[in-house]
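Step 1: inspect the first sequence and its tokens.
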Amino acid sequence: MEIGIVGLPNVGKSTLFKALTRTQVDINNYPFCTIEPNIGIVKVPDERLDKLSAMSQTKRIIPAIVEFVDIAGIVKGASTGEGLGNKFLANIREVDAIAQVVRVFDNSQIIHVNNKVDPEGDIETINTELILADMETVQKVKIRLEKDVRGNKKNAAEQLEILNKINTNLEAGRPANETVLDLEDENAKIVVRELSLLTMKPFLYIYNVADINQPLSDNLEKRSHIKLDIKIEEELLDMTKEEAAELDIHSNIDTLIVRAYEILGLITYFTTGVEETRAWTIQKGWTAPLAGTAIHNDFKDKFIRAEIIHWDKLLEAGSWSKARELGTLRTEGKDYVMQDGDVVEFKI
């Protein structure tokens, strides 16, 4: 699952990527220094994994991961090809969620593409370009669906109604993900999947501040966001834990990774033993047989049952066998919906 890091040029995207992945990337001080997207795999911090590993005296630990993609900066007019607009839109269409970096700090030494620091204006610029690109996509599909309605094609009228709801929001300057849709409805699923709209993706705003305690405007505060001093995060890469503690400097990167994982709608279950303790990533709402496919595709069809216990209950028991003895280990069938933090042993 990929999170696309987007924003105007020179807002801190590539510096953030470097801090996230500890990968050296080009962070020169000029627009469009990122042309091809940098991609980095980041482990999801999870203290539960370490505690389970300690209990099992595990030989190796395998964490959950999330992939971050550092995408070229966007400018006004990107939806019509300005700057690296077409490349930007193509790259962002491939990711599963959007982390939008917004410059809130003042620094005359770092160029702002619009020559002024205006976080709310920057958000509007980016979102407008995404919305305009989505409107173009919607219009193409709308022409086809209107033709299908005239030809009395099955479900075409219902799908056109759903598309029109999305289009109404876009025309009002609102992202598609604010449209109230029944995503359990098969027609809604078909329309959303076919459109693959940029603004239908989950958004997380990353406010690049000079001080983590810096107050924000109400408009910035109301968005799903996290505050980061990205320059400090970069400096921490060259410090030991002792040096950072002495200077009383703390990283907020782990919080960002966890939030990014959450906006993708992901949860984690665990397997643990002497050889390996591992975090497995699944979508929230998956049943036990479907969750088993994270391990192997055959688990869904060959599933018989699963022995499950929540991670904290397993730690309380001290071992799998003790949990079974205490009766805290449960046997679940095909309809069981997995919960974040479950520890599982599948029977196939």
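Step 2: inspect the second sequence and its tokens, then contrast the two.
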Amino acid sequence: MAQFTVPTKAEVSEANQAIFNNLEKGLGFVPNLYAYYAKNETALGDYLALQNRKSTLRAKEREVVNLVVSQVNGCRYCQSAHTVLGKMNGFSDDQVLEIRTGSASFDAKLNALAQFTKAVAENRGKVSDDVKQSFFEAGYSEANMIDVVVVIGDKIISNYIHNLAQFEIDFPIAQELETVNA
């Protein structure tokens, strides 16, 4: 069985070393997921550009998408990282757990977003008219829908990378959900 390792700064290209330096300045460390991307010459820079693109969604809304998709895809790394980021964006522990199930009963608009995201991720974009209608009735636009799908794509990339490589999670481990809504 292949053993996947996270490279050190000395083991990556000069361009990726520069990105590591920026991450260390901004975050205080280089998360293992980002370091793993640096095994590829361009993937880390490309991924960070995607992740940091301008969006019609607020940071809190992007975290809803990140949490839901990471749960749908069973990615413990991203569940853990986005639990931390979700709390940094104002969600409580209980709210983070609820969001991961695909709902947010504490906020009607975020609830529509969580339900829409879960349906899109589980059904590869083929969602019912009712789910789409609820999303739009909550105040979201077609531009928002496009951004939700871009964030879903971003998170699928990370989820799949970690699910394949299974490198160490360098965030506090997210609580397992006791029950997963079907």
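Step 3: confirm your contrast with the notes below.
The two ends are 33 Å apart (CA to CA). Residues 73 and 159 are 6 Å apart (CA to CA).
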